[in-house]
Specification:
D-Maltodextrin-Binding Protein, domain 2, 11 helices
């Protein structure tokens, strides 16, 4: 910190790195050319480094070139943060990490309710399937799908979905309405590639009492939303979790096949570092999230 210069000197350096002469730099800063030169000499003296080669045009030295992006990023971050704080106007920002499919299909349709109940909370969504460590740059809180074991973190159960097949009315017109689960074996089945958390056809068939060695797959997808979209287009039958198709079942664009109870082996949990769950804005968010989750759980159950 003993080498930290005045902000005016840093600003003069940042502007000078973008200009060919002290004159043009001084015009942007609205100070004299000699003032710019003085600020830069002070900076070079403080750091013991030569930052510019002075001639007909300003040229950065290797030291100046190494420092220029760091100083520029500092001012850009400062300006962006100040603009963000002014925009918030007293609102508390809450950065929430979720999976993309959960955010798109379940959380986004409900966020207007949060804004209505708690206008002081400004939610920022960060979508990823990766685990987070809650470091300084990570989101404040997370909503995760899993077995519920989160060591050294505060966690709270939200809801558990049901797993079932869905198809479009167009597909059912072409193939007919299946009466028994075994009949699905002659339908094109949409399968989702990926982690163990993804619903698997083999597991569902086993649950309904069928042992299946091979499936009539049409396409294998790497994303839940693409799987649902393919089902909407009539390309096959998808095996989905209830939270991903609420709207489609409600408007009739997808039809649930077989009323067979099959609770998902994993559930959604609210997760955050221990201690911050008691912060007022996080308490408000948790309470709202719990209410929405309980309502969804009643519908899924």
């Amino acid at each position: 910190m003993r080498y930290l210069p005045p902000t005016a000197s840093l600003r003069a350096f940042e502007v000078a790195t973008r200009h060919a002469t002290f004159t043009s730099a001084s015009e942007e800063l609205h100070i004299t050319q000699s003032a710019v030169s003085h600020q830069l000499k002070h900076l070079e003296s403080l750091w013991g480094l030569k930052l510019f080669e002075r001639g007909k045009a300003l040229t950065l030295t290797p030291a100046g070139a190494a420092l220029a992006p760091i100083v520029r990023e500092f001012f850009m971050n400062l300006e962006a943060t100040l603009a963000d704080l002014r925009e918030q106007k007293g609102r508390v920002r809450l950065k929430v990490s979720t999976t993309y499919s959960y955010a798109l299909k379940w959380l986004l349709p409900r966020l207007p309710s949060l804004a209505q109940q708690h206008p002081d909370i400004l939610v920022t969504l960060d979508t990823t399937d990766e685990a987070i460590k809650f470091s300084r740059t990570d989101p404040d809180v997370a909503i995760r799908l899993g077995p519920g074991h989160y060591p050294n973190l505060f966690s709270e159960f939200l809801f558990r979905e049901h797993i079932f097949p869905v198809a479009s009315p167009d597909l059912l017109k072409r193939f007919g309405q299946p009466r028994q689960p075994a009949e699905l074996l002659r339908y094109p089945l949409l399968t989702r590639d990926g982690a163990d958390l993804v619903p698997k056809w083999e597991v569902w068939f086993q649950h309904v009492g069928l042992s299946v060695s091979s499936l009539q797959e049409s396409v294998r997808f790497a994303d839940t939303n693409m799987t649902v979209e393919a089902a909407l287009l009539g390309q096959g039958v998808a095996l989905v979790r209830s939270g991903h198709v609420e709207a489609q079942i409600a408007d009739g664009s997808l039809v649930r096949l077989f009323d067979v109870p099959f609770p998902s082996p994993v559930a959604y949990y609210f997760v955050c570092p221990k201690g911050i769950e008691a912060q007022p804005h996080i308490v408000s968010f948790r309470q709202w999230l719990s209410e929405q989750s309980a309502e969804a759980q009643r519908a899924y159950g």
